[in-house]
Write a structure and sequence with these properties.
This protein is of the alpha/beta class. Helices cover 32% and strands 27% of the residues. Strand 2, helix 1 and strand 3 form a beta-alpha-beta unit. The radius of gyration is 15 Å and the shape is globular. Belongs to the anti-sigma-factor antagonist family. One of its GO terms (molecular function) is anti-sigma factor antagonist activity. InterPro entries: Anti-sigma_ant, STAS_dom, STAS_dom_sf. This is Anti-sigma factor antagonist.
């Protein structure tokens, strides 16, 4: 499977990088390059790596994320992971890197669409 990456400018000077597909030995460099590209253009308030649509990540992909985190940190920019898929969340937890990326909760499809029911309502 291939990897596609969408970059979005969000309010407050935040750049969202959203990979879709598998991040592995063949595609990990794309994540690292995407982070470097954002930093080459300027200094965003924060970079959010939205991992909701990542279906697989291997050790090379995790390594690329860490390298991107370090590159951002050297530039004075905070890089966090948002909405990791359950697979990504598990890999970050197992490797002990979940806290490095902001300790995000895993993304559950439909979770945001479910209204909260209050007692007595």
């Amino acid at each position: 499977m291939s990897l596609s990456i969408l970059q979005t400018v969000r309010p407050g000077g935040v750049i969202e990088i959203a990979p879709r597909g598998e991040i592995d030995v063949d595609t990990a460099y794309e994540v690292k390059e995407s982070i470097a590209e954002v930093l080459a253009k300027g200094r965003p308030a924060r970079i959010e790596l939205n991992m909701r649509l990542v279906t697989f990540i291997d050790s090379v992909g995790i390594s690329a994320m860490v390298a991107g985190f370090q590159t951002a940190e050297v530039s004075g920019v905070k890089l966090v992971v948002t909405e990791p898929s359950r697979f990504v969340h598990r890999q970050l937890w197992v490797t002990g890197l979940l806290g490095l990326f902001g300790a995000p909760e895993p993304y559950y499809a439909g979770a945001a669409a479910t209204p909260e029911v209050l007692p007595g309502a």
